[in-house]
Amino acid sequence: MTIGSFVVAAVVLTDEHGRIVLVRKRGTSRFMLPGGKIEPGEEPEACAIREAAEELGVTLDPERLALLGVWEAPAANEPDHRVRGHIYLHPWVAGTGEGGELCPSGEIDAILRLHPDEAGGRNDLAPLFEFRVLPALIDPEVVG
Fold this sequence. Notes:
By secondary structure, the chain is of the alpha+beta class.
């Protein structure tokens, strides 16, 4: 039984090796795209940019942000909830850490760079990423 739902915006950042940046928030067990809940009156694009800055310390260019899609899935860390995600693509940006590394901040406990070929068989990926975003990245014709 679904109790509630919420709306988020997130961003796909892919490094030079084709690995997608995922984050695990404090107190959770699943990796997801950097992003978060859209605040009242906030546009999804602005939320994606804000969350990337808060979680990874990176500055995204609004002109280079492209909508990949909007999908729904079971919420990863909130039982009996669904999430509707506005998912954006953005070219790679270096972090502020040594050598351009991304720096987890705020509520982020871990950063994972995952190549799509390595996603199979994992049990620690958020459903929105695993069942909606990843298939759309691999074959855009498959997911509508």
